[in-house]
């Protein structure tokens, strides 16, 4: 029975590994076995199937390489595999959180979050700013923050960022702006009047927090009941920084600059 290309590429971990390996360039059978740490008995039948499916070919030097069709298949399969990996590594988190605030064009590229990790809150410090997050934030020189929930502990952090003369662009949702205007007016004025900070207000109801600097990025999604559960994604990957910066810009474009209070 003829095997479909989807089954050929995805139903065997070994075949998938061979295809991804050959994207780097031609490899002999021995080089494939060494790179994948497998023996002939386990890998050669899979290589044979890939040849029969015309996804790889063998040249005159007995090296295997991707066929023209194989190159296209592998190019398309990598983003899919990366997308699955993003969700699979923290499956429970994604199925229990609301990511409708992420625009479709960025959801389609969510694989770019790359090798992120989950920063879980210490139960003994549940209402404190996580130290790893705070340290990286205060060591950054160019900071962009989209904020849809208010935490008074961040007021001092913003003040310290201003004192260090780091550049900061802060987008507040309307409820956060109203809370700061009511209870932390002097601090809000300090941010608005600072030469190194820009403050924007977004009137759209958004349930996420996005932080991106030249060092790292952090993404907070609310759970499906609209609650913040003290979990955040963090990444230092260049692709993730670019992705989070695009997310920030998406909401900045629909926000208004706060020139004065």
Secondary structure class reads: alpha+beta
Q: How many structural domains does the protein architecture include?
A: 2
CATH topology category name of the largest domain: Endonuclease, Chain A
Strand content: 15-25%
Number of strands: 10
Could you outline the blueprint of secondary structure elements for this entry?
Elements: H1 5-10, H2 13-22, H3 29-36, H4 40-52, E1 56-58, E2 64-66, H5 68-89, H6 91-95, H7 104-107, E3 117-120, H8 131-138, E4 142-147, H9 153-163, E5 167-173, H10 174-183, H11 185-193, E6 197-202, E7 208-213, E8 217-221, E9 231-235, H12 238-252, E10 256-257
Parallel strand pairs: 4-5, 5-6
Antiparallel strand pairs: 1-2, 3-9, 4-7, 6-10, 7-8, 8-9
Helix pairs in contact: 10-11
Can you walk me through this structure?
- This protein has 261 residues and is an alpha+beta fold.
- The protein folds into two domains: 76 residues, Arc Repressor Mutant, subunit A, CATH 1.10.10.10; 168 residues, Endonuclease Chain A (Endonuclease, Chain A, 2-Layer Sandwich).
- 46% of the residues lie in helices and 18% in strands.
- The strands form two sheets. The protein has an eight-stranded mixed sheet with strand order 3-9-8-7-4-5-6-10, with helices on both faces. A two-stranded antiparallel sheet has the order 1-2.
- Helix 10 crosses helix 11.
- The chain is elongated, with a radius of gyration of 24 Å.
């Amino acid at each position: 029975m003829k095997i479909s290309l989807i089954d050929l590429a995805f139903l065997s971990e070994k075949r998938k590994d061979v295809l991804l390996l050959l994207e780097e360039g031609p490899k002999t059978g021995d080089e494939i076995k060494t790179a994948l740490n497998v023996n002939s008995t386990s890998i050669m039948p899979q290589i044979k199937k890939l040849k029969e499916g015309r996804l790889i070919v063998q040249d005159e030097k007995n090296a295997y390489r991707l066929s023209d069709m194989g190159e296209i298949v592998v190019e398309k399969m990598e983003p899919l595999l990366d997308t699955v990996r993003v969700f699979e590594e923290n499956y429970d988190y994604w199925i229990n959180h609301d990511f409708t605030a992420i625009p479709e064009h960025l959801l389609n590229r969510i694989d770019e979050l790359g090798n992120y990790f989950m920063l879980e809150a210490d139960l003994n410090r549940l209402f404190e700013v996580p130290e790893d997050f705070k340290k990286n934030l205060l060591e950054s020189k160019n900071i962009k923050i989209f904020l849809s929930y208010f935490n008074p502990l961040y007021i001092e952090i913003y003040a310290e960022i201003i004192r260090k003369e780091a550049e900061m662009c802060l987008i507040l949702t309307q409820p956060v702006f109203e809370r700061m205007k009511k209870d932390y007016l002097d601090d809000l004025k300090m941010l608005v009047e600072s030469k190194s900070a820009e403050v924007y207000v977004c009137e759209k109801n958004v349930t996420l927090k996005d932080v991106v600097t030249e060092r790292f990025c952090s993404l907070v999604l609310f759970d499906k009941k609209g609650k913040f559960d003290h979990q955040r994604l963090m990444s230092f990957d260049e692709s993730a920084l670019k992705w989070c910066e695009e997310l920030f810009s998406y909401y900045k474009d629909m926000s208004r600059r706060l020139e004065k209070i």
